[in-house]
């Protein structure tokens, strides 16, 4: 028998969303009549069809694959230049960020990249996460052996947790001591909070002072409505010396089932080798990707490129405003029901304090039993998420309105 990676045995629970699915399936088994009434506002999965511009581009690319002259086999490992160039121009140069096409790596998802990036970092780094946090950052560090065991609250040894709660306005305090790697996610999953230019400037200054690396997850940047909030960490001066950025087409263009994302690793951004020399992360990631990944299909990359056409920009803006109108309906519905509500104005997630001091999982059960609505328990995102709950704005208008109506009539305090 082979031995196993024992780090997996340190994981406290199943991955959050399958765990929710398991509990919902159990509920349906016990209450079969409730099955068709269930409304899922748990996982942030899109519901609206892909933008027409992407569909047209992908159909055309499929046809190209049918002819010798236009057929594509393996693509460039870093991604097709047509897509990297469109991203550099529209997402970075247009915002004054000094990022070039060859610093962009196309992938099939930010989750995979957030996990994979640990391959190129050492195991002796001090790693900080906000708490609550997107569980992938923590679990992947557990799996690779970067943490100790979990305590009763679910906090893993060796990781530094920076609480983000209503008490500190969901703004993580800059650590007093040196951390080597810090994960930041803005707009934030799960709290729906955003980071101002001033806040990000402080983080970049901290990272420069301590030689830290910021892993910046900007998967939800398209949902920012406030013109003063940065969409990219590279809008902050010197950020290219300290930060890697993860971006995705999943939420803005509805690619959760289509799969396309990208990671930006600026040239010059370096880590230290065992012999003390400086090594560029860009080259290491290129080497890692060319060994472990064969790229995103030509057809999908053509679809993603179409996001940047005039029609694609209009259609993705339409999708974003559709979900943000859902977020408004959720915010207002919950506020009317007497709950303390956060987020949901620059992010597709609404974060609430559970009523009557219920734990997050108690409120999950209350909501499921009394209204047949599925949300995500805040404690699933970390110990400081206990007593909070997340609702996602990704659903049909009809379901969102129905959900708020049910909450208003059943749970209003
Ligand atoms: C979420 O619900 O937090 C998201 O679906 C996570 C993800 O995109 O992986």
List keywords for this structure.
Aspartate Aminotransferase, domain 2, Aspartate Aminotransferase, domain 1, 35% helix, 7-stranded mixed β-sheet, 413 residues, binds D-malate, 4-stranded antiparallel β-sheet
Q: What this model shows, in words?
A:
The protein has 413 residues and is of the alpha/beta class. It folds into 2 domains: 6-49 and 313-410, Alpha-Beta Complex (Aspartate Aminotransferase, domain 1); 54-310, Type I PLP-dependent aspartate aminotransferase-like (Major domain) (Aspartate Aminotransferase, domain 2), CATH 3.40.640. It has 11 helices and 15 strands. The radius of gyration is 21 Å and the shape is globular. It starts with 15 loop residues before the first helix and ends with a helix. The mean pLDDT is 96. D-malate binds at residues 43-45, 111, 189, 250.
* Proportion of residues in extended strands: 5-15%
- What's the order of the H and E elements? HEHHEHEHEEHEEEEEHHHEEHEEEH
* Protein structure class: alpha/beta
Largest sheet: 7 strands, mixed
Low-confidence stretches: none
Number of helices: 11
- The whole-number mean of residue pLDDT values reads 96
CATH class designation of the largest domain: Alpha Beta
Cross-sheet strand order for the largest sheet? 2-8-7-6-5-3-4
CATH superfamily of the largest domain: Type I PLP-dependent aspartate aminotransferase-like (Major domain)
State Rg: 21 Å
Tell me the overall shape.
globular
Helix content: 25-40%
């Amino acid at each position: 028998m082979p031995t196993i990676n024992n780090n997996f045995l340190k994981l406290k629970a199943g991955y959050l969303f399958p765990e929710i699915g398991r509990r919902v399936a159990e509920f349906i088994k016990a209450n079969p009549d409730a099955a068709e009434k269930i409304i899922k506002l748990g996982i942030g999965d899109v519901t609206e069809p892909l933008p027409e511009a992407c569909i047209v581009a992908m159909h055309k690319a499929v046809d190209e694959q049918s002819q010798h002259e236009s057929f594509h086999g393996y693509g460039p490992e870093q991604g097709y230049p047509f897509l990297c160039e469109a991203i550099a121009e529209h997402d970075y140069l247009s915002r004054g960020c000094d990022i070039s096409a060859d610093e962009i790596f196309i992938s099939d998802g930010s989750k995979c990249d957030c996990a994979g990036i640990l391959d190129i970092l050492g195991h002796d780094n001090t790693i900080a996460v906000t708490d609550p946090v997107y569980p992938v950052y923590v679990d992947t560090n557990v799996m690779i052996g970067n943490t100790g065991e979990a305590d009763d609250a679910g906090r893993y040894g060796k990781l530094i947790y920076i609480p983000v709660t209503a008490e500190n306005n969901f703004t993580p305090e800059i650590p007093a001591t040196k951390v080597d790697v810090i994960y930041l996610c803005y707009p934030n999953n799960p709290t729906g909070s955003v980071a101002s230019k001033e806040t990000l400037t402080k983080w970049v200054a901290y990272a420069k002072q301590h030689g830290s690396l910021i892993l910046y997850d900007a998967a939800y940047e398209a949902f920012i409505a406030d013109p003063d909030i940065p969409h990219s960490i590279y809008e902050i001066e010197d950020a290219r010396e300290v930060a890697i950025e993860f971006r995705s087409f999943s939420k803005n263009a509805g690619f959760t089932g289509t799969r396309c994302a990208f990671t930006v690793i600026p040239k010059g951004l370096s880590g230290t080798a065992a012999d003390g020399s400086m090594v560029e992360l860009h080259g290491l990631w290129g080497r890692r990707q060319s060994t472990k990944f064969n790229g995103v299909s030509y057809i999908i990359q053509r679809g993603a490129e179409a996001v940047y056409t005039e029609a694609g920009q209009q259609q993705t803006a339409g999708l974003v405003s559709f979900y943000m109108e859902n977020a408004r309906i959720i915010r207002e519905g919950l506020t009317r029901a007497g709950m303390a509500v956060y987020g949901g104005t620059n992010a597709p997630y609404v974060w609430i304090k559970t009523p009557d001091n219920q734990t997050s999982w108690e409120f999950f059960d209350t909501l499921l039993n009394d209204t047949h609505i599925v949300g995500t328990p805040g404690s699933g995102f970390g110990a400081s998420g206990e007593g909070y709950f997340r609702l996602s704005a990704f659903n049909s208008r009809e379901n969102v309105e129905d959900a708020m109506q049910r909450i208003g009539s059943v749970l209003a305090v």
